[in-house]
Amino acid sequence: MRIEDYALIGDTRSAALVGRDGSIDWLCLPRFDSPACFARLLGDDSNGFWRLAPAGHETATRRAYAGDTLILETVWETSTGTVKVIDFMPPQHANPDLVRIVEGVSGTVDMSVKISIRFDYGRIVPWSRLIGGHLHAIGGPDSVWIHTPVLLNGDGHGHHGTFTIAAGERRAFVFAWQPSHLPEPDPMDPVDQLGKTRRFWEEWVSHSRAAGPWRDAVVRSLITLKALTYSPTGGIVAAPTTSLPEVIGGVRNWDYRYCWLRDAAMTLDALSRAGYVGEAATWLEWLLRAIAGRPEDLQVMYGVAGERRLPEQTLNWLSGYEDSRPVRIGNDAVSQLQLDVYGQVLRCMYQARKHGMPAPDAYAWATVSKLMDFLERGWDQPDEGLWEVRGRRRHFVHSKVMVWAAADSVVRAVEEFGRPGPVERWRSLRERIHAEVCEKGFDAERGTFTQSYGSRELDAALLIIPIVGFLPPDDPRVAGTVEAIQRELTADGLLLRYPTSGHNDIDGLPGAEGVFLAGSFWLAEVLALLGRKDEATELFERLLGLTNDVGLLAEEYDPVMERQLGNFPQAFTHVHLIHTAQALS
Ligand SMILES: OC[C@H]1O[C@H](O[C@H]2O[C@H](CO)[C@@H](O)[C@H](O)[C@H]2O)[C@H](O)[C@@H](O)[C@@H]1O
Question: Which sequence ranges form a coiled-coil region, renumbered to this chain (predicted)?
């Protein structure tokens, strides 16, 4: 399956990827960052999957979400009849469940079901037994109970069965995860849960302010962002997957099932602008809990409950998506210094307040002050930057601009909302950073800002300069930077993050990567800010054309192979889809 052949279902605690072939190939339980019990996505059949499809049919005829929900409907038209498979995860259950309802639409269809559960990312072959209409699998800390309406037979590889579905009939499979020391969970009514799940999503979407020509794409992105929120704590993961490659067969494979402050802050900015101020407030509480401690110990990412240690490991029993190895879990970028994160967080708090979030309490503002103390001491250090380079630290222009944005946000909060200072110190910090970036980060000869002080490379992240108001859109230095980026950093009109052809010393990694979709949306947003609305709209609509059949986007795209690349679906990309739609309308 191509990455874009997958659709997402989820319960705001974890998520599954369902292929166009009717196979669930990725599911981590009970949390986004738990070990997967279906990991075929990153390996093969022996790493676990659950396929439910007409016997002998490879791919579905069509599929779509049911209206503004995360309920997936996959339709198969066969020579004997038409069948629909409805997949969803009820969002309000203590323990995760996954429901698959098979609905006969016309005629009769012979169906096949194959289930192979492999706990611990496809490694543990569980003990399985069939008891009174249930398949029970147990291994280590995990157990799964599947209520099956058809007789299953087991062999060394898993369980399988066949059945015929006629027009008007419904058969439901209910999969429930439970810690292995607990007894079988209470039964649930799948049809009742279908109604509740539909109402949950429709009610949530009804609070959105999305309107206009791109309303459906924006709403699908909002639903996706909500699906990536871990509801028990308010943390937001960057994506529900690990190690989907940034180039097929390459090594740029990372685990995104954590809460990056950068990605989460941007997500909250998009949600609060779209009317979801409550989500912004919940995330702010999550943030204050996660970062509680010394400001210099602030991490760029945390686990969904605020965990700090996320050690990177390689799962060498998995062959990787289309042989893209290594498969990694954990992320060593956790210990990097990325100064932009401070700016993202403080700017997000300021923006959320502007969009109606209640004033943060004195404790929250004291945290803001401490973060600013840290920035006053440390803003001039080199860092790893927002791209989390694994090469040497540099004075990234984007990082400095975002520290400027941090200072600008707190100065504005003092001026506009009457928060306590020290405002003079913050104003002076803002001025010093501005002067240094304009002096050391601008190449006057070429008329463009550069990736880092004194370098010749460009960087898509420089597009943030007019977005955060570091310089006005009509400043010639902005126009020069946009022009240079369009000239030197695009592939087929879409934006690369930075030059990665061949081995380079920017990120310390071999090989190139695809175009960065969030950056390409930035370009459209900046073109709109510059008044180049037709060009911006054309680029935006082209990017919308890259969404898959159910409106989802990964982190990157390969314009030559015409394939999505990287973790999927990625919050960062959907956030910038929303921002650009807002900028254009
Ligand atoms: O490609 C290098 C880096 O890729 C990942 O980082 C990227 O994803 C993050 C989450 O969406 C995002 O915040 C960051 O800006 C992106 O560069 C990966 O997590 C890193 O470990 C890796 O070095």
Answer: none
Q: How many Cβ atoms are within 10 Å of 132's Cβ, its own excluded?
A: 6
Q: What is the pLDDT of residue 503?
A: 44
Q: What is the mean pLDDT of residues 45-63?
A: 95
Q: How far apart are the first and last CA of the chain?
A: 36
Residue nearest to atom 17 of ligand 1 (CA): 387
Residue 514 has pLDDT above 90, yes or no: no
Whether residue 230 sits in one domain with residue 91: no
The CATH number that applies at residue 227 is 1.50.10.10
Residue 442 sits in the same domain as residue 554: yes
Per-residue pLDDT, 357: 82
Residues 502 and 480 in one domain: yes
Identify the bridge partners of residue 49 per DSSP, sorted by sequence position: 116
573 vs 96, higher pLDDT: 573
HEC readout, 109-171: EEEEEEEECCHHHHCECCEEEEECCEEEEEECCEEEEEECCCCCEEECCEEEEEEEEECCCEE
Distance CA 559, CA 229 (A): 30
**Given a cut of 80, is residue 174 above it in pLDDT?**
yes
Residue 106 lies in a domain: yes
List 515's β-bridge partners, or say none. 557
Atom of ligand 1 nearest to the CA of 390: 23
Among candidate residues 187, 203, 219, the one where a domain is terminated: 203
Q: Ligand 1 — pocket residues by CB below 6 A?
A: 238, 252, 254, 256, 260, 262-263, 331, 333, 386-388, 390, 507, 572
- pTM for the predicted model, two decimal places: 0.95
Q: Are residues 198 and 219 in the same domain?
A: no
Distance 210 CA to ligand 1 centre (A): 29
Can you say how many angstroms the Cα of residue 51 is from the centroid of all Cα atoms in its chain? 25
Ligand 1 site-directed mutation target among 388, 398, 495, 556, most atoms within 8 Å of CB: 388
Quick: pLDDT tens for 278-302.
888 888 888 888 888 888 888 999 9
Asked if residue 215 and residue 163 are part of one domain, the reply reads no
CA 460 / ligand 1 centre spacing (Å): 14
Domain that holds residue 340: 207-240+265-275+335-584
Q: Count of alpha carbons within 13 Å of 124, Cβ hemisphere only?
A: 16
* Portion of the chain with pLDDT greater than 90, in percent: 79
From ligand 1's centre to the CA of 388, what distance in Å? 6
172, 211: one domain: no
Residue at 579 is within a domain: yes
Which residues is 413 bridged to in the sheet? none
Residues contacting residue 61 through CB under 8 Å, at least 6 positions apart: 75, 76, 77
- HEC string for 303-344: CCCCCCCCCCEECCCCCCECCECCCEECCHHHHCCCCHHHHH
